[in-house]
Amino acid sequence: MKPSIIAIDGPAASGKSTIGELLARRLGYLYLDTGAMYRAVTWVALEQGIDIADEEAITALAERVEINITRPTVDDGRQYTVYANGQDVTWQIRRPEVDANVSPVSAYPGVRQALTDQQRRIGRRGHIVMMGRDIGTVVLPEADLKIYLGATAEERARRRHREVRERGEVADYEEVLAAMRRRDKIDSERKAAPLRPADDAIVIDTTGLSIAEVLARVEGLVQNPKSKVQSSNGKGRAIFRRFTRSFLRLLLRLFTHLEVTGLENIPQGGPLLVAFNHLAYLDGPLVLALLPQLVEGIALEDLYRVPVTGQLLRLYGTIPVHRDQFDRQVIRRALRVLAEGKVLALAPEARMSLTGALEQARLGVAYLALRSGAPILPVAITGTETVPSDLKRLRRPRLTLTVGEVIVPPPQASKPQARRQQVAELTDEIMHRIAALLPPEYRGVYAPTPTPPPTLGEGSSNSPSPRVGRGG
Ligand code: DC
Questions:
Q1: Which among 40, 167, 245, 282 is least buried, having the fewest CB atoms inside 10 angstroms?
Q2: What pLDDT score does 471 carry?
Q3: pLDDT at residue 457, as a whole number
Q4: Distance from Cα 9 to the centre of ligand 1, integer Å
Q5: What domain count does the chain have?
């Protein structure tokens, strides 16, 4: 049986509307781009001079404005006609001033409630392809097929830039990219229905794929829902991950003293690079157990040869990396994970610290952040290095996990030399931010350099001596 309700979600310029329209046409289904509804409310608000920051007024407007989306009524390249209070606003809602204001408008819970109710009424009739940010997660969680289209911010900015220029308007690529990142940030960090793939969505990274290629994959899923099983985002894996996480949380609660701080710093949705200091094998599991989102990880290839650990890593679906080779394939897979709006955790030091204090970091995390535009979440861990000896002495290990504030990478420079410089600087910043979350004796090579004359406060700057030995 063909799926009757199809949800397609994804960030701006991920190809949703092109793919959704083609798919709907081939299936003879109704096609509803819910972004047009948020845009219509925004346009009317601007027209009526309502202050976009006035949540109450904007919500009241969303509740009373009459939006209608019909088949194209004019043959001018439009995909559909949008009416707001009876007026054809199909092209007006694509204007830059709407682009610039639609994300804050769509972040208001009351606006979402009003539009979500309408979308549900239409969607539940079936034979529909509905596009948006939250269709699979909030509007129609019962959809028969959920697809999430992603692509790197650069790729999406290139597409948008090309579209604008094809319309004969002038546009600067760097500005388009910056605007894209601003909208991504608001859409994925907002509290109400943030942009993220549903757990049972099939995620397709469209970076480097043509429209025909993406359409072929999507049609394959429609015709043969079984192919869903092969998806790396399959239900089985999600269940295994949730189970692992709950089990780890239980073990931690039972056998350790655990202190977790800063969870409020974690953005609600969207791609994220979690960078943690690496003291012991337990660090990766600790991060995956304690973060609220399901985390993807990168693990050293050597670990895959350890009995049990290896099988667990495979089941969990971590990305294997060779000790000294952060190679192209790993980068491609990591970028794909981020383009899909997921959370990727890795240790910038790329190996466990020999001294228990921070060691010189590799450049991988900063490189991925600059390429993908994903923000970095610094995470500091203490106590995992003494777990084996604590347990041997029947002592409850004391573990801490501290989450710092997100670091947003700058737009990637265009010249290779400037890019290298950016990677080095960002690596340094990430490590210093992790160091600042750690007690002085853990800061190692990222301890602040002592600045004579000594000041009060940061007493740690008196050359903290890295601890020797990891106590097991
Ligand atoms: O897909 P688009 O660029 O036309 O969407 C415009 C805005 O509307 C976008 O910034 C996010 C918001 N939106 C939303 O919050 N939920 C949806 N289901 C669809 C769009």
A1: 167
A2: 36
A3: 47
A4: 10
A5: 2
pLDDT in tens, 314-332: 888 888 887 766 677 788 8
Instruction: Taking residues 414-432, report their average pLDDT.
Output: 94
Helix (H, G, I), strand (E, B) or coil at 382: strand
45 and 156 together in one domain? yes
What's the rounded Cα separation, in Å, for the pair 151 and 211? 13
Q: Give pLDDT tens digits for 257-316.
A: 999 999 999 887 778 999 999 999 899 999 999 998 888 888 888 888 888 888 888 888
Q: Which atom of ligand 1 is nearest to the CA of 34?
A: 19
Beta partners for residue 321, in sequence order = 300
pLDDT band, very low/low/confident/very high, at 458 (cuts 50, 70, 90): very low
Tell me which residue has its CA closest to atom 1 in ligand 1.
Answer: 35
What pLDDT is recorded for position 454? 52
List helix spans (H) across 87-132.
96-106, 109-123
* Separation of CA 75 and ligand 1 centre (Å): 25
Are 176 and 304 in a shared domain?
no
Q: Are 168 and 295 in a shared domain?
A: no
**Is the CB of 206 inside a 6 Å radius of any atom of ligand 1?**
no
Distance 129 CA to ligand 1 centre (A): 15
The pLDDT value given to residue 468: 37
Q: Is 119 in the pocket of ligand 1 (CB under 6 A)?
A: no
**Ligand 1 in contact with 179 (CB < 6 A)?**
no
Q: Extract the tokens encoding 199.
A: 């757990």
- Tell me: do 153 and 290 sit in the same domain: no
CB 172 within 8 A of CB 227: no
| CATH code, domain carrying 206 | 3.40.50.300
Cα–Cα nearest to 372, from 349, 350, 340, 346 = 340
Q: Which CATH number characterizes residue 328's domain?
A: 3.40.1130.10
- Domain of residue 250 covers 241-442
